[in-house]
Amino acid sequence: MSAVNDTKLNSAVFLLTRIPGQEDIQNVWISLPFCFIYVFSILGNSTILFIIKTDPSLHEPMYIFLSMLAVTDLGLSISTIPTILGIYLFNSKEISLNACFAQLFFIHSFVFTESSILLLMAFDRFVAISNPLRYASILTLPRISKMGLVCVLRGVAVSFPFPFLLKRFQYCRDNVLSHSYCLHQDVMNLACSDITINYVYGLFLTVFTVGFDSLLIFLSYVMILKTVLSVASHTECLRALNTCVSHLCAVLLFYIPDIGLALIHRLGKGSSTLLQIVLGYIFLLVPPLMNPIVYSVKSKHLRARIIRVFIK
Question: Model's pTM, two decimal places?
Fold first, then answer.
């Protein structure tokens, strides 16, 4: 085989993709929305963490779980945005294989961790509404810490095989990814080898992590509704359900684009490239931006503390 073909089979880089049809727009203008999202995601989640850490009155299970969500969103933003800004600010489309594998490991780790934390937050709301008298004794700080550690370990453990499963492949196609960052399901489709193991493992994780977590969250809210409707008056019912609105928004922002993107990568071979890219941006960029806003707006206690800090 010629040297040219050898180089093609062992390409040292992948090519990241920007929004199609926007090549004529100056990079600085199209990068502004991504800069805005990045800055406000970092500031918003950092503010949430600072307020919860410095205010002892917020050292309650609901806010501790919220701080876990903020840390995960920070990690997701830091893992994703740099390559996106690199494309639009510096036209840097190339990413080495090792850098790509490292990025997808961190992205998937934070995604699976966030799914677990959203499940814990659903459990928190269920305990608070169905058994309020034992709420503090059930969700103690040591128990919450162990739950958070399990979430992190699960996210890391299930994502750890991804780089090794991909590193064994040769990539003999054009090496152009579907997004401005690396995802396992995107990279594996560029391999010129049998990807059955990767496909089955990725599908297994999608079903038994994100799918299982979303099912348990749904069942948690079914039980919450059953509890509220059976024992509460109309006013108390609305008050109890109002405490769940922020979490429901976070769940919808996370799971709808996540499941949609997973279906497109595995079933939508002829789907629009623009749809894949936009859905990918929504999946990884919108939750870290919107979660601090949603929780700040809906939580009077948290909102009052944030206002007090900035007014001072």
Answer: 0.90
Least confident of 25-29, 103-107, 120-124, 171-175: 25-29
Indicate the helix (H) or strand (E) that contains 14: strand 13-15
Residue type, 14: F
pLDDT value for 21: 61
Radius of gyration of the chain (CA): 21
Instruction: Give the number of other Cβ atoms within 10 Å of residue 182's Cβ.
Output: 27
| Both structure tokens of 82 | 């740099």
* Cα–Cα distance measured from residue 152 to residue 224, given in angstroms and rounded to the nearest whole number: 26
Summary mean pLDDT of the chain: 86
Q: Alpha helices, DSSP H only, in 91-183? A: 97-130, 135-138, 141-159, 161-167
Note the pLDDT tens digit of each residue in 244-301: 889 999 999 999 988 888 777 766 666 677 788 888 899 899 999 999 999 988 888 8
pLDDT at site 279? 87
176's CB contacts (< 8 A; 6+ apart) are 14, 15, 17, 190
CB atoms within 10 A of CB 246: 22
The DSSP symbol for 312 reads: -
What distance in Å separates the CA atoms of residue 158 and residue 279, rounded to the nearest whole number?
23
What gap in Å lies between CA 197 and CA 241, rounded to an integer?
Answer: 43
CA atoms within 13 A on the CB side of 311: 6
Token pair, residue 225, equals: 């509704």
User: Which amino acid is residue 207, in one-letter code?
Assistant: V
| pLDDT computed for residue 160 by the predictor | 95
